[in-house]
Design brief:
It is a single chain. The chain is α/β, with parallel strands linked by helices. The longest helix has 18 residues. About 8% of the residues have low confidence.
């Protein structure tokens, strides 16, 4: 993006366009009160010029809404010349860096960032950097390795976070995703992942049990149990330990084995010396 500097621009000439994250009215009211007390906007918004005149908002939707609520005529803004994709990428990065996003919002932003990144970097969408591809067949890491690296450098997120977010964003049916916004499910990554693993019809059925006027289940797992008329399974200690082991990294597994050795819980167990 090409910077045109800091300017005071008319609020009436700013088009907010489609935003990936809805404006929170409660936060807008709080922000407006703070701005009114201090008499200034601490952080300017970001906009891009539009062909034919006017501006399109890049970042600062809550700040703009607060100043509009206060009936300000103008607002301080960093103005840029940018394409639609460049502007959208800036909006996404600003939100990922500045806000505590819930798992659903994070998934939405990261999935959109991946799509834009691949449009701007076509080689990444083709798999790029094959040397980093996993060969186990369980993941398709080569498809997001370049994107993950770029995102990590700009935002500081891990590959694991990105992969889980993309699974949520791609797995949820559009109407299910819309229905989940603003609910407790949107704040729980495990529930979102469990929901994303289901087919669209199952997702809707489960959601009906979780979000109805009289909820019939407290979790995706419980809803599935009720729908299938099966008695719920109680996870025993062995199952929990096995699940934790499968999700542990190499260093964590080695540390656990070493703990068992020192604790005397291990006798001679073949194969544990070279835990991978």
């Amino acid at each position: 993006m090409k910077s045109l500097g800091l300017q005071d621009i008319p609020i009436s000439e700013i088009d907010t366009g489609f935003r990936l994250r809805a404006v929170d009215d409660g936060y807008v009211a709080l922000l407006a009160e703070n701005i009114q007390e201090t008499g200034r906007l601490r952080q300017p918004i970001e906009v891009r010029t539009v062909k034919g005149g006017g501006f399109r908002l890049i970042a600062g939707g809550h700040r703009l809404a607060a100043c509009t609520k206060l009936e300000w005529a103008t607002i301080s803004a960093f103005v840029y010349e940018a394409t639609e994709d460049e502007a959208r990428l800036a909006e996404i990065d600003e939100n990922l860096v500045r806000h505590e996003l819930n798992p659903l919002d994070r998934a939405t932003f990261l999935f959109e960032r991946k799509a834009i990144y691949e449009r701007l970097n076509p080689e990444a969408a083709k798999g790029g950097d094959r040397g980093n591809q996993h060969t186990g067949g369980k993941t398709r890491q080569s498809e997001i390795v370049s994107f993950s690296r770029d995102t990590a450098e700009r935002i500081g997120l891990t590959d694991r976070t990105i992969q889980l977010a993309v699974k949520i964003a791609t797995g949820l049916a559009p109407d299910v995703k819309a229905a989940v916004v603003g609910t407790e499910i949107a704040k729980t990554q495990a529930e979102l992942l469990a929901l994303a693993k289901l087919g669209p019809a199952e997702q809707r059925a489960v959601l009906g049990m979780l979000l109805g006027d009289a909820p019939k289940a407290k979790s995706v797992r419980e809803a599935l149990t009720v729908l299938s008329n099966r008695p719920p399974k109680t996870a025993d200690g062995y199952a929990k330990l096995l699940t934790a082991w499968r999700h542990a990294g190499t260093g964590e597994r080695r540390a656990f084995v070493e703990f068992l050795r020192k604790d005397g819980a291990l006798g001679e167990v073949n194969g544990l010396e070279n835990v991978q």
